[in-house]
Amino acid sequence: xxxxxxxxxxxxxxxxxxxxxxxxxxxxxxxxxxxxxxxxxxxxxxxxxxxxxxxxxxxxxxxxxxxxxxxxxxxxxxxxxxxxxxxxxxxxxxxxxxxxxxxxxxxxxxxxxxxxxxxxxxxxxxxxxxxxxxxxxxxxxxxxxxxxxxxxxxxxxxxxxxxxxxxxxxxxxxxxxxxxxxxxxxxxxxxxxxxxxxxxxxxxxxxxxxxxxxxxxxxxxxxxxxxxxxxxxxxxxxxxxxxxxxxxxxxxxxxxxxxxxxxxxxxxxxxxxxxxxxxxxxxxxxxxxxxxxxxxxxxxxxxxxxxxxxxxxxxxxxxxxxxxxxxxxxxxxxxxxxxxxxxxxxxxxxxxxxxxxxxxxxxxxxxxxxxxxxxxxxxxxxxxxxxxxxxxxxxxxxxxxxxxxxxxxxxxxxxxxxxxxxxxxxxxxxxxxxxxxxxxxxxxxxxxxxxxxxxxxxxxxxxxxxxxxxxxxxxxxxxxxxxxxxxxxxxxxxxxxxxxxxxxxxxxxxxxxxxxxxxxxxxxxxxxxxxxxxxxxxxxxxxxxxxxxxxxxxxxxxxxxxxxxxxxxxxxxxxxxxxxxxxxxxxxxxxxxxxxxxxxxxxxxxxxxxxxxxxx
Length: 616
What we know:
This protein has 616 residues and is an alpha/beta fold. The chain has helices at residues 2-20, 27-41, 43-50, 57-83, 98-129, 135-168, 184-191, 215-235, 296-308, 337-345, 381-392, 410-413, 443-446, 516-519, 549-561, 583-615, and strands spanning 197-202, 239-244, 263-269, 280-286, 312-317, 348-353, 369-373, 396-400, 418-421, 425-426, 433-436, 438-439, 455-458, 462-465, 473-480, 486-487, 505-512, 529-533.
């Protein structure tokens, strides 16, 4: 009996130490508690050396090994706690090997504790076997010992496999729509990211306080967001993910602006500084409900592409009175220097395209995007031919029309069965400006949140589309004025009886037709892409900072350079499974629940009682 006490005391002391070691805040109390706990954990070893000298050598050896494992677990845990030092200014723990070392120590502690428990159980069984002499009991004891030794032999392998599985985060997505894993296309795109991107998700933990009404719903979807964060991190080591509760962890919010819970912020360092002092390029993705999870993968990949775009060359035409260049130098508000500054911060190289660069005879081969911003003079035939040839070669154009200028781009719009209508569009009586907030579904608008803010726009022209399947270019509406707008036909800035409210296309996307073979190719060629706006003022220095103007402009240029593979990333809409049953089936369910199930339980208890009475 005395032998058992020391074995049980060692095991219980070690488990209690792990359970309550954090309750002492005083350094002195913590020191005495650790010392006292160590003595108790080592009590079996001390008893073997001092009190229990008449023990069989084989049994003594087994107990020394067991006690040594318990003491090892205790010491390793103390070392692991020591390495968990407090944060020090200027020291980033994640940049060292300390987290990996602590994880490895945790593995050793787990193995030591498990081995200690198994050997302690064997020692207790061995003590009982001395008091039982029957061969039957010895056979049972031998069987139990073999079982425990077999478990002891296989457990390190199981733990090691689990450790490396957690370290590499291997997972198997068995859902029908691949809900918990990225698609092959997404993984292919993310794998190519070369620059470091930090991804911070702002969500409360489960049951954590949040002052907002939707705090509980956000904490409910956080586990699924964590899955997406893990997918990002494991697709490429350049992704650094973290979670912050914007309502609680205020001390971590100093580095963030304009963020709140229910948002994912993606950041990459800028290659140049700006006047705002913000060193990051940023993209925001809103996730505030289960429905937002359906296209979260697509939005994350698009955001990553926007931030990781390799240095692209953007050329601005200057030969036809555009707003880029020296044409509007005397009118600073009409220039687009703020727009070009935003592009440069997103790693775009800004270049001029004029006579000195050989235009219109040719367009540089390294041109990733051509921007034609509000030309006031018509393009000559040589310029038109050069631009159309560039489009045929899968070129990318960002065009804004100046309705007060001579160039209406009819030579381009006609290829998509479209035309420009120079009419006054109004929303509010007496005002020339409108808030265009009717976005059509498109990859460009998917990354725009708070769409109700709209784009601050001047409604003095719109597009009229005449559907024609034989058109060379396919047109898609991106931004419309909204149904609160109307055509002010008599120019009195009022909604008259004969003027009806309607939504008018203001920004159009044109793409070249793609063959079925190219659509299904693993490495599809990007089609020609053109974004054309019916007005230029919205991206000038005076108005680009209003509402969503800069976001729409930047997203448009980013999309022109995006891989067409992103369009293959499907939304993961989970349709609920609805099962209907007939009236007869309902009757069967009702009868089973009300009569058959209770009767079967009663018969089962009766049969159990009958067998028990007969066996006794």
